[in-house]
User: What shape does this take?
Amino acid sequence: MTLAVSETVRALGNRSEEMIRALAEITETEGQITRLFLSPEHKRAAALVSDWMEQAGLTVSNDAIGTVCGILPANNRSSSNKTLLIGSHIDTVINAGAYDGPFGVVAGVLAVSEIQKRGIELPFAVEVLAFGDEEGVRFPSTLLSSSAVAGVAKPEDLEVTDADGVRLCDALKDFGGDPAATAKAARDPDSVLGYLEVHIEQGPVLEAERLSVGIVTSIAGANRYRVTLSGMAGHAGTVPMHLRSDALVGAAELICAINQIAHEANDHGVVATVGELSVEPGAVNVIPAEVVLSLDLRAATDEPRHEAARAIKQAADKIAAKHGLSVGFEQYHEVSTCLCADRFQNTAEKAIKSLGLRPLRLMSGAGHDGQAMSQLTDIGMMFVRCQGGISHNPLEYVEPHDMGLAVEALVRWIETIAEEERAKS
Ligand code: GLV
Ligand code: MN
Ligand code: MN
Assistant: This one.
């Protein structure tokens, strides 16, 4: 790398870190980073991203579902009327790290700013998108913002409520969105050239390989369920153990069974997580009558995931029968394994090689907006190393130097795609 490129990478890394820190300040809980979909903090983060986009010379708007959209028009005489979309999300999990999502938005804004500064001519428009609902933490919906842009969100997806009983459509109105107009967020597939996303790896592979960036080959499929076990409330002092229908005892057994099933299917990359549990009535002296737990199930390919889902349901039926309970699975999210397009993997490889880096290809176990966007257009993803592979944790950390390299790689990736498009016409 020449001295000038190193200097640029250093400056881009430092600016990325400043922008990440500014977004991290916007949180519902002091001392944490928690920014849930359609919360007032999401709205403030969206406003900050809008300002950055305007400063970067983009034409900014918010779509009906709250996605911030910043357009850089094509600037070449032989332009097509297509748009290359670049995005990621600005919502977070509870007590999140600072980089999961925001870095992809920051990288997109900085890359288009560099493209203009360097006078790079592009035969297509570039649009940076800051999505909201990637994490699916507040409402039982996941990837709703990117699904709306992809044209696959359904009106009933807005008819859900959060844990406080707030309806998504009401939260959307308060945010400034328009529940009745979400169909208008959908893009015409013919108008889109593809979708690129830069994201932190959230795993340990790049660090182990001593690489700053990598090329994503595919994103693991996932199911999410709300599982309800129902038994019978009773007096903790009077009902003998063998006459109880204790929903929490059944839930405890089911959680262990889920864990065991995923361990046994580990060779197929199956992972299963119970991350939420609610117990009713929830009193020290009352036998639990109802437990609702969340189940997040993923695998590298689809069939082992379906197989694990079947095994978990069978185990749940057996456990329910043993404890005199009823059990129900409500699936509220399913996304198949999604492949990144060869043309975007290959152009990313050229861009990464041009920086003198080894172009490692790896899959993503984490979910991304690209999964929804793949229903609209070809997608490509680039990963950035994160320390210890730690994510969904306040310890999440990415070196500014790696972020700078990722932004530079993104600029070169867009340039390489432009060269290919010009060669086609
Ligand atoms: C998003 O981070 C997910 O993979 O759950
Ligand atoms: Mn993410
Ligand atoms: Mn995440």
In short: The chain has a mean pLDDT of 96.
